[in-house]
Amino acid sequence: MRYSIVTLAREALSGNRGWTPAWREPEPKAEYDIVIVGGGGHGLATAYYLAKEHGLTNVAVVEKGHIGSGNVGRNTTIIRSNYLLPANTAFYEHSLKLWEGLEQDFNFNAMVSQRGVLNLCHTDGQRDTYARRGNAMRLNGVDAELLDADGVRKIAPFLDFDSARFPIEGGLLQRRGGTVRHDAVAWGFARGADTRGVDILQNAEVTGIRVENGGAVAVETTRGVIRAKKIGLACAGNTTCVASMAGLRVPIESHVLQAFVSEGVKPLIDQVITFGAGHFYVSQSDKGGLVYGGDIDGYNSYAQRGNLYVIEDVHEAAMALWPGLGRLRMLRHWGGVMDMSADGSPIIGTTPIDGLYLNCGWCYGGFKATPASGWCFAHTLATGVPHALNAAFRLDRFATGDLLDERGAGAQHNLH
């Protein structure tokens, strides 16, 4: 079924009796050309682009839970491409361009809202850093505007300009950035992949990976053994556990990142705004709740829950930026498991094990990268070699020293 205004009207007039399931519930085959481990945004996007761009439909996505139960439904929905280093700039700009046409492409309303992303600066040095980043973006064809304090005041007058501990001196604005409904992204890619013949296998937890003669040949799941010519891992924070089943150590750590939603209120904020004097970012959902977050919990964990001290830290930053937030109640919060790489940039490519491919190390940037990640990983799986957009994200850069330290925090996983 193709979704359209005509379909909606027809179903409304017929009692909504003609809607079909968004995707099938198939039984696993004994063997596939490609098996993707992880039914989150990146895994589903990979399957979608394998079918759409490369004509490969004998593909299965295995997910230990249900579609949308992982990080793709546990984030703050932000999309942007305001990066500094060339490899990251080109990759995330490609992702943003895919976002801009995604809903028409996979025929699903993902609620893409290009409301703008504003990064605030509070010191002269920080303004100079943003000017450098903005210039790098513009040289690479990416939109960027450097605002002074009056420019910020025009679009966000509710912030604390006059009595703040960290006065606002300006900001870097990318108008094409914004937000997307996170779970709708998973549903749209799942439906699009299924329509093209991909099998989506829910409640199929991987319990082992069979390696024979130096090559990965099968995954062992709770729904049976599934052989594959190629296996792609898109497991986010659980990558270290799954990769270890094949005897592969991956240079990432898993940390919890919490996100928060306030009670619903009337429209307050039109953009995504980030605090330059602390790690805090906020936007408003269509339901009226403010969606916001901050730093990861500073310890390794595979749990989808966080600790009180991070809740306190995030809300202290919120009050420093926007004191009016103190009048709102926090409605709920949750945690996602972040796969933190040592240089803050992702890993997409081959591994020393034949037939085993990696997609991991997304740190804070996994959701915004979803379309480009799937697009590039699909190319890598289909051809056996990376695309130019993900060539710099190879696994062996940690051995050769060709790191992509976007944030400038060094080789400390918890700082990225």
Q: Can you put this structure into words, describing what you see?
A:
This protein is of the alpha/beta class and about 425 residues long. Strands 1, 2, 8, 9, 10, 11, 17 and 18 form an eight-stranded mixed beta sheet that branches. Strands 5-6-4-13-14-15-12-16 form an eight-stranded mixed beta sheet. Strand 9 and strand 10 form a beta hairpin. The protein contains ten helices and 18 strands. About 30% of the residues lie in helices and about 25% in strands. It has helices at about 5-15, 40-55, 85-105, 125-140, 150-155, 180-195, 240-245, 310-320, 370-385, 395-400, and strands at about 30-35, 60, 80, 115-120, 145-150, 170-175, 180, 200, 205-210, 215-220, 225-235, 250-265, 270-275, 280-285, 290-300, 330-340, 345-350, 355-360. Helix 2 (about 40-55) packs parallel to helix 6 (about 180-195).
